[in-house]
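Researcher: Next sequence.
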Amino acid sequence: MDEIRVDGLCRGLLRGFHRYLLEKGTDPLEAGTLAHGADYYLRDFIVSSRRRNLFEETPGLIRRFAATWYIISNLEPSAEELGAMLRGIMEFYRFLHENRLVSDDYLGIIEQECTDIPFYEERIRSFLDIKGDGYLAWERVCGLKDGI
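Model: Next structure:
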């Protein structure tokens, strides 16, 4: 029952985020793309996979999402798709910050993690090039099991 309640709360927050983007003058198609990226990160990764509280300020969480979880959770991980999601995540955290739900310091961390595109592109390339039992070495660079 808690999962259904949390999902409803997340949807409400995401609808507020989408409305905020539209009120800011964001093109409706772009607002939908940004909200989709935030939705995937929040509901699929934070809540469903990691079972974390969105408002816990955990450095490295987006890095693990983008550099490992997204890559292993998609049949065809794409730097373009991931980049769009990261833009949505960054805008979502800016929305949270504007509403005083995350700190200045944490927003700075989020912005750094969301803009490290060359690292994530390399992670996708190196994942697609894994041979034999190379997955464990690949995963160690940015593992999911490091307390997050």
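Model: Residues 57 and 106 are 6 Å apart (CA to CA). DSSP finds seven helices and no strands in the chain.
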